[in-house]
Amino acid sequence: MRWIRIILSPKIAINHDVCIHCLKCVRSCPAEILISESSKTQKGIIKVIDPKSCFECRACEVICPENAINVMCAIENESAP
Ligand code: SF4
Ligand code: SF4
Question: Based on the number of CB atoms within 10 Å of its own CB, is 12 exposed (0-12), middle (13-18) or buried (19 or more)?
Answer without folding.
Answer: buried
